[in-house]
Write a structure and sequence with these properties.
- The protein is of the alpha/beta class and 433 residues long.
- The protein folds into 3 domains: 46 residues, Transferase, Pyrimidine Nucleoside Phosphorylase, Chain A, domain 3 (Up-down Bundle); 247 residues, Nucleoside phosphorylase/phosphoribosyltransferase catalytic domain (Pyrimidine Nucleoside Phosphorylase, Chain A, domain 2), CATH 3.40.1030.10; 88 residues, Aldehyde Oxidoreductase, domain 3.
- 44% of the residues lie in helices and 15% in strands.
- It contains 16 helices and 13 strands.
- Strands 1-4-5-13 form a 4-stranded mixed sheet, sandwiched between helices. Strands 6-9-11-7 form a 4-stranded antiparallel sheet, sandwiched between helices.
- Helix 10 links the parallel strand 4 and strand 5.
- Bound molecules: uracil and calcium ion (CA).
- Its cofactor is K(+).
- One of its GO terms (biological process) is pyrimidine nucleobase metabolic process.
- It catalyses: thymidine + phosphate = 2-deoxy-alpha-D-ribose 1-phosphate + thymine; 2'-deoxyuridine + phosphate = 2-deoxy-alpha-D-ribose 1-phosphate + uracil; uridine + phosphate = alpha-D-ribose 1-phosphate + uracil.
- Catalyzes phosphorolysis of the pyrimidine nucleosides uridine, thymidine and 2'-deoxyuridine with the formation of the corresponding pyrimidine base and ribose-1-phosphate.
- Keywords: Glycosyltransferase, Metal-binding, Potassium, Transferase.
């Protein structure tokens, strides 16, 4: 087999076989095929697209390029959730104990990563004592016993995806549905999930800013999952404004605690119920979405989800008292309100700009080496469509620096108030089951 022929076939719009796809992924991973040939192929894929069968083959070739996590020692159907990324997205902190309280095993492998705030692990580490440095055996035992545990990412998962993603980054081929879909799905499949629920975000704060692109990506990923025997469902949700009110690590833990007690923000609660219902159905703990939703709603109001959260914190060394006393979480020194400059309706709260403001306060990492300040962030008091009076606080900045002039300037640029009538944006655009 020659790489030249594979490039030529795709350039001319042909369909690559599983063998051809495995050939170029293996050859690239082990360094036998050079960057320039893979670059040419990526550009051909960008213009010629891939069939559903090619996409599934590409995904599995990337899965098989490295280690795969074996979760077979965990009883039941393991379901994982993936979000394409947003601002103030606290859903994992809520969903993990919520679905576990219904007996769905949640073996969560999570990273720290870069971003506006930390990842799930960073957020959980805001709980004094909580740690993810546990052995694989302890992790499996905890999931079997409590149905939920979190561990840091380890092993050499999908090395082909890491190499390809770096190359796409410098060859203008990131924005390709078959390449994005196979990249995301390969990582979920290598992590050992039997069932996968995808939260595909759309809007200013999302990777897929355009709704039609988000729909296409969601359908592409569901198709790949189902083709390779991982039942997959998806939700397309809004990320034009931040989710919930809190953006920041400890602040989002507090928001998760409120939500697990049935008194969280409406949008965050709704999204958790929608995604959670799909997870419960995939794990076969309910017959259909409506029954699953009913069970989840009960778990939020009867204390089952909240108790599961406390058990989860305690089992990994965390001080579960924070659930009843959130003031035990790290607190920022200064709380500074942002008054509205005029009266009217909130027309825009640009999600990624708010994320950047949170990062300027120290809530997220700009580089892998940056330290995160778990206590800082932003708590909104208004969302799109809400009325404000002049001078009313739009949000509170939680900071450890007294001077936040630059952050304030950024926030005023990101929030628009109008005298016209504004409706709250749609939260869930589509569910794919
Ligand atoms: N996220 C991924 O993991 N892969 C992509 O290709 C794009 C976004
Ligand atoms: Ca939030």
């Amino acid at each position: 087999m020659r790489m030249y022929d594979i490039i030529e076939k795709k350039r001319n719009g042909g369909e690559l076989t599983k063998e051809e796809i495995t050939f170029f992924i293996d050859g690239y991973t082990n360094g036998e095929i050079p960057d320039y040939q893979i670059s040419a192929l990526l550009m051909a894929i960008y213009f010629q697209d891939m069939t559903e069968v090619e996409r599934a083959s590409l995904t599995m070739a990337m899965v098989e390029s490295g280690d795969q996590i074996d979760l077979s020692a965990i009883e039941g159907i393991k379901v994982d959730k993936h979000s394409t990324g947003g601002v103030g997205d606290t859903t994992t902190l809520i969903l993990a104990p919520l679905v576990a309280s219904l007996g769905v095993p949640l073996a969560k492998m999570s990273g720290r990563g870069l971003g506006h705030t930390g990842g799930t692990i960073d957020k959980l580490e805001a709980v004094p004592g909580f740690h993810v440095e546990i052995t694989n055996e302890a992790f499996i035992d905890l999931v079997n016993k409590n149905k939920v545990a979190v561990i840091g990412q380890s092993g050499n998962l999908t090395p082909a995806d890491k190499k390809l993603y770096s190359l796409r980054d410098v060859t203008a081929t990131v924005n390709s549905i078959p390449l994005i879909a196979s990249s995301i799905m390969s990582k979920k499949i290598a992590s050992g999930a039997d069932g996968i629920v995808l939260d595909v975000k759309t809007g200013a704060g999302a990777f897929m800013k355009d709704l039609e692109d988000a729909k296409e990506l969601a359908h592409a990923m569901v198709s790949i999952g189902n083709k390779v025997s991982r039942n997959t469902m998806a939700v397309i949700s809004d990320m034009s404004q931040p989710l919930g009110y809190a953006i920041g690590n400890a602040l989002e833990v507090k928001e998760a605690i409120d939500t697990l007690q049935g008194k969280g923000p409406e949008d965050l609660t709704e999204l958790c119920l929608t995604l959670g219902s799909q997870m419960v159905v995939l794990a076969k703990k309910a017959k259909n979405i409506d029954e699953a939703r009913q069970l989840l709603q009960e778990a939020l109001t009867n204390g089952k989800a909240f108790d599961k959260f406390k058990q989860f914190l305690e089992s990994q060394g965390g001080n579960a008292e924070v659930a009843d006393n959130p003031e035990l979480l790290p607190q920022a020194k200064f709380k500074i309100d942002l008054p509205a400059k005029s009266a009217g309706k909130v027309a825009a709260i640009i999600a990624d700009e708010l994320g950047t403001a949170a990062m300027m306060l120290g809530a997220g990492r700009a580089t892998k080496e940056s330290e995160i300040d778990l206590s800082v962030g932003i708590v909104l008091h208004k969302k799109i469509g809400d009325s404000v009076t002049e001078g009313e606080s739009l949000l509170t900045i939680h900071s450890n620096q007294e001077n936040v002039d630059q952050v304030i300037e950024k926030l005023y640029e990101s929030i628009t108030i109008t005298t016209e009538h504004i409706e709250a944006p749609t939260l869930i655009y589509q569910t794919i089951t």
